Amino acid sequence: MNTRKVVNLFFKTLAIGGLVGLIVSFFVNIGGAYTENLQPFNLMGLVGVILFFIGHGLLYSVVSQTGFFAYLYVHRLGLSIFRSFWPIVQVVLIIFVLFDLVYFPYKGSDGEVSLIWFILGAFLLLTYSWIIAKIKAKETKAHAFIPALFFMVVFTVIEWVPALRIGFVGADFSLIMVLTLLACNTYQLLILHRLHNSPKAKK
């Protein structure tokens, strides 16, 4: 994959991040940001809010892309160290991360939020990741399923959770962030083999 394709991938993923961040913000409407500028109508304020959420989407896209290239390195490293055991190691890490995604947020909430919500969140992440991994495996090879599932679960959580813990984003922005990360991660994962197998790449 040449430099032109890497740059193209960067800007397309960036655009997806900005678009998803904006679209999700319409439904979240944090703090009534849109409502305040629609009643009464305030054009400059509305434009400012739109640019603000696009900016957040762009930022989360950069986080996603950093995580994706880190994943490519980790995957190669895992293959060289664990060899045939690497798929088993990935499955163990997936289970461990999903457990952490339920246990630690629930413990941090001091019981104020029901455990079922954390379990549901982890289940939804796993289900979505499973679907994307199946698509990846169908379009490439069967053994691509576990690495794809590993990336979608483990690296999405790695990209998302630390930012929440250090207060990089507030709780109200967590939904925008995770959906943007999932969209960008999905795009990068499913487009990678197409870039390698494109007609121009074969010439």
Automatic annotation (TrEMBL):
Pfam families xref list: KbaA (PF14089)
Q: Which residues are listed as membrane-spanning?
A: 9-34, 46-73, 85-103, 115-132, 144-161, 173-193
Keywords from the UniProt entry: Membrane, Transmembrane, Transmembrane helix
GO term, biological process aspect, one: positive regulation of sporulation resulting in formation of a cellular spore
Whichever gene encodes this chain, its name is kbaA
Q: Which InterPro entries match?
A: KinB-signalling_activ
**What is the designated name of this protein?**
KinB-signaling pathway activation protein
The taxonomy runs: Bacteria, Bacillati, Bacillota, Bacilli, Bacillales
